[in-house]
Amino acid sequence: MAQTGLEVRQLYSERDDRVLFAELCFTLSAGDVLQIAGPNGSGKTSLLRILAGLSSRYQGDILWHNHSLEQQRADYLQQLLYIGHGAGIKAALSPLENLRWSCALRGLPADDNPIRSALAKVGLRGFEEQACYSLSAGQQRRVNLARLFCIPAQLWILDEPFTAIDQRGVAEIEQWISDFANTGGAILLTTHHRLMINRPLRIIELGER
Amino acid sequence: MALVSLALAVLRRDLLAAARRGSEWSNPLVFFVMVCALFPLGIGPEPQRLAELAPGILWVVALLASLLASDTVFRSDYDDATLEQMLLSHQALYPQVIAKTLAHWLLSGLPLSLLSPLLGVLLHLPAAGMLALMASLALGSAVLSFIGAIGAALTVGLRKGGLLLSLIILPLYIPVLIFGSSAVKTAVDGGPFLPQLAMLGVFFLIALALAPLAIAGALRISVDQ
């Protein structure tokens, strides 16, 4: 049995006196894919930001490998790859320069080969040296998603990864998610899109009350 | 070693991004030149009066230019969400913040101090004061960059943080202004200006040691919403 990675117990959060979610409990083990669904404003992004450790506006417990997040913070962050709905890249820099910086933040050795192959994998071969502002919205999104392939992690937290991505790209990302889960990764994502993956998919609906 | 390479990567990226944009680092510099050039027109061209006021004018305008530049330290990183990546790195925020502030100083304070002798000539600052002016501006603007970065980190999450930023950091700028302009004045009078520079050095070391902690904490608060 795969070990429990992330465990959430009795999570509660509110925003502007409105309860986003209460008594939220779930576990996420290696190989799990968990989709957070719900209408706009139901707190999906807030939940992901809390789980990524960016927001402290919650009550309840979040455990990583059976220890609280505060104790395990450095280890947790090393295993976590969070892709928010912001751009995540500097428009003035090229994809290569952006990813060099992202990899340096994760303490990876300065080596362009993994970055180039990650960019090739997201379909940006030939665009490595071009400034990001000259790329289309979907291509910029792909630059951000290329981090999935040059930064090793155990847990992906993806906030609306399909935004601005074309149909074939959506299928590709679904394939990446399945592949990552097959190799023992855990994935938590929000999307309004119906996921087509060949892995058991769990869905948590927020905003149902 | 890992921390040094992290800091270098952050520094390289910030300098590269600033070099491509241009306006961000040139605006405070243009402000510095324009305002200093206006003073002889405003208070008359008498060399003696200008020379008397020059140390104060140069330092006050440099301080305002630095204030103008401080808002940009984290603004674009916040807007394009790359700040989240910084905070989510398992490595310490301390070297990243130092590198970002250093990049900011290289793009604002250093050009300011390199340009200052030119404006000193414009304001009839005696030649004896030039070295003190450059040295005090170079050292002082580094302190200003650290203080400005604290204010920028505190207000980056606010839509209209401009006025608040000034209110937070201006009082902290004042000691730097006092010792900086006093160094130039003393040098013009022919006295030893090393004590004032030493005080600026003390400010710099305190800022280098403590400001990154404050900046890192403020950034976490600003992003936490």
From TrEMBL, chain A:
Domain of life (superkingdom): Bacteria
Database matches in PROSITE patterns: ABC_TRANSPORTER_1, ABC_TRANSPORTER_2
Keywords of the record: ATP-binding, Cytochrome c-type biogenesis, Membrane, Nucleotide-binding, Translocase, Transport
Segments forming domain ABC transporter: 6-209
GO process terms (BP): cytochrome complex assembly
MF-aspect GO terms: ATP binding; ATP hydrolysis activity; transmembrane transporter activity
This protein's record includes keyword Transmembrane: no
PANTHER family named among the record's database cross-references: ABC TRANSPORTER I FAMILY MEMBER 1
Protein name, UniProt field: Heme exporter protein A
Organism whose genome encodes this protein: Zhongshania antarctica
UniProtKB/TrEMBL annotation, chain B:
Annotated TM spans: 28-44, 56-74, 102-123, 130-156, 162-184, 196-219
InterPro entries found in the cross-reference section: Cyt_c_biogenesis_CcmB (IPR003544), Cyt_c_CcmB_bac (IPR026031)
Localisation per UniProt entry: Cell inner membrane
A GO term, aspect molecular function: heme transmembrane transporter activity
One Gene Ontology cellular component: plasma membrane
One GO BP annotation of this record: cytochrome c biosynthetic process
Membrane topology, record value: Multi-pass membrane protein
Keywords: Cell inner membrane, Cell membrane, Cytochrome c-type biogenesis, Membrane, Transmembrane, Transmembrane helix, Transport
Protein's UniProt name: Heme exporter protein B
Organism whose genome encodes this protein: Zhongshania antarctica
Taxonomic lineage: Bacteria, Pseudomonadati, Pseudomonadota, Gammaproteobacteria, Cellvibrionales
